[in-house]
Fold this sequence. Notes:
The chain is an alpha+beta fold and about 575 residues long.
Amino acid sequence: MTHRTSRFVPIIIAVSVILGIVIGTFIANRFSGNRLNIINTSSNKINDLLHIIDDKYVDSVDISDIVERAMPRILSELDPHCSYISAQAAKTANDDLKGSFSGIGVQFQIREDTVYVTNIIKGGPAEKVGMLAGDRIVSVNGENYTGKVVTNEETLHRLKGEKGTKVKLGVVRHGSTKPLSFTVVRGDIPIKSIDATYMINNQLGYIKVNKFGETTYPEMLIALAQLEQEGFKGLVIDLRGNNGGYMNSAIQMINEFLPEDKLIVYTEGRKMPRENYMSDGRGSYQQLPLIVLTDELSASASEIFAGAIQDNDRGIIVGRRTYGKGLVQQPIEFSDGSLIHLTVSRYYTPSGRCIQKPYTNGDDPQYELDIVRRYQHGEFFNEDSIRQSGETYKTGIGRTVYGGGGIMPDYFVAEDTTTFTPYYEEVATKGLISQFCFNYSDANRKTLAKLSSADEIAKHLRQDKVVQQFIEYCDSKGIKRRNNMILRSQPLLESVIYGNIIYSILEIEDYLKYINRNDATVNKAIELFRNGLTKPQLTPANDKAGNKKTAHISMPQQARSRYLA
């Protein structure tokens, strides 16, 4: 009997396993909504479609190209910040935030299908072999490189490369009849995330941060040490135009200014449990008067920084409402080097507000037009025009702050339009300011190179009647002369033209020092520091009537369009 029973044991076990699988599948489907099967079915459906296209479509197709184009469209069905990045674009983006890359050490622009070197990185490979600003690159490794093939992406591809590799460049120099040849050995080129560090006056220091990368925190420590040697008693951190970067870099920087055990930011998502980021009390500048400058392009990590300072009542925010990006993306890399940025959580400021502005899932064209709508609605010019419909929250001392759309500054500074005319709009929109400044700098580089400061260059440009030369240049391009508008826009034209030319000859710090003198947001910060208003109060001493308007003097068009290689 025992022997006969043992013969059926394997059969009984097999039947039990099968029943277990069936029951388990039923339970999983019953209580998980069959989600896994849906995902598997959908992915198989996509794979099947690609195989069918590859096997049966009437013409030959590049399946990998179809996938590349399909990936962004799939992610666009989610929130506005999920994105797909190709392998090449991912490398460029990573270089930008990592603080260095391997290349020849030049900044360049493309003009009339030719690469123009606008600046040489000091101590870089190009400088070592004798290349100069103003050189035109006409061949790379013996091949002609002019015409329609010349693009920013292609130029970066040809000039960047592995450290220690060589690239042979044919160069035409202004005033020279024969092309010159340079063999450049590629090397590490630093990318700074702090554009300027200087004393605005004998007490107030200034630091301009353009992004939050891997090297931003140590760069800031060096900047603070420099200002400490110069005896600063207060600090302005300029985050205008800074669209973010690494959250951890912002957290490290904020920690320098907060006492121990203060919440800096927390993140939370559907699959990501809440994680708090606290200050450790080791910061060296916990009592230093602090002013943070923001505008509508200050986003993400910039908003983490501004929100932590505001919610902890540690300093004051001056300028305009920030962008409103409160979503956290995790980079997920594929085997070919491409990657996706997938939103995995939201970040919240210490008071508990998520400052992400409203959006709808899927392709949302209105989301990208939000800043345009703000401008049209008058938010840039009038604080009362600002629409914040989110919930209200309280800072540490009980001040009211808002969620649902950026960080509202403690002191609003409007943008001035008094010098903005249709004439200025036309010449700026058509790129004539940038073109003229480039041509003037190129033609007068030897003379301008002898001038060692922004003041000397500005004085020379004034004596040379450069603004009048620009107006005549616009005449030659068919722009109708409008004398009353030109007179009204004279201060703005002078600031922008001088700023572009100063930046093309000197460094970005020299440019910032020059334009910040007439920047009302910077001047408002100086006024607040002078009056001892850098510590937030429960009833803010924000004199709306006293808020000056600021001239529209943004980063010069040349600087925005330069590329590093």
